[in-house]
Amino acid sequence: MITEQADLKLLRIFLTIVEAGGFAAAQSDLNLSLSTISSYVTALETRLGFTLCKRGRGGFALTREGQVVFEEAHRLFKSVGQYETKMRALRDKLSGTLTIGLTDNTITDPGARRIEKTIARFMERAPDVTLNVVTYPPNDLLREVVTDNIQIGICSFPKTVLGLRYIPLYDEIHRFYCGSDHPLFDRKDAEIDIDEIRRYRLIGRKSWLGRDLKEFAIARPHATVTDMEAEARLILSGAFLGYLPEHYARQFVEAGRMRRVLPDRLKVKVTFQASLDDSKQPDPITKLFLDMLIADFATERA
Predict the structure, then answer these.
(1) Is there a single domain that holds both residue 248 and residue 286?
(2) 8 Å CB contact between 266 and 175
(3) Phi and psi (nearest 5°) for 132?
(4) What is the pLDDT of residues 41-87, one digit of tens each?
(5) Whether 160 and 100 share a structural domain
């Protein structure tokens, strides 16, 4: 009875010989000498207890038993192949939950649109994965990545944390704005300077760690915010000045509710990155999404 791995090897050799049409014809496929091929067939015949084929001057021909062995072996290896294919499909099937963290108010940013494409491609490739998308301010998002509550965070991160991996994706432009009820709204930029701006209430963004106030050389802001909607609301009140992403402020500018102030000088470029724990290998789900994300943004930059 054929039961051992060595027997299966002999059967595979026999199949190759039959499909090639003889010992000599199978040499190149098996990369074996004629004597070695002959010894393998003899070993298989000994194992089975009967002759499989006729060989010699009369040419190669299967015996009746050899024909049966060939057909059954062919079915056997076809079944093995199907089994391996099914097992590989089970092994490679992606299921589970992937949690992605985003920062607020990036949906209007043309630079961020590739995220939507990545999500669509990912779900097509991994339809059984449950996608969990959460939105946090930058500092909170960073904390969630560090504590492994989020597998991938996408944000302009306020600082670099040891043990995290950061992959640059795209840049976002921020400009300085005032609302339509602010005293500077109707003033020309030529009439405004930094000293003039310093006289008014300025907004500080917690995640920027004072970088947005450096230009104005003030000790502390007159208001602090954690997200763009809060900052926009303060600017629209007419009581404060502050930075906003250009794409996000455009709706208010076009409606006549805001204007840029000193756009050539007060401009900040921030880089959005994907971040994840670099201390361990990402699981297959996380790796697939990350690879797709990097590829999509590389295409966009190109």
Answers:
(1) no
(2) yes
(3) -115, 115
(4) 999 999 899 999 988 777 889 999 999 999 998 888 888 877 766 66
(5) yes
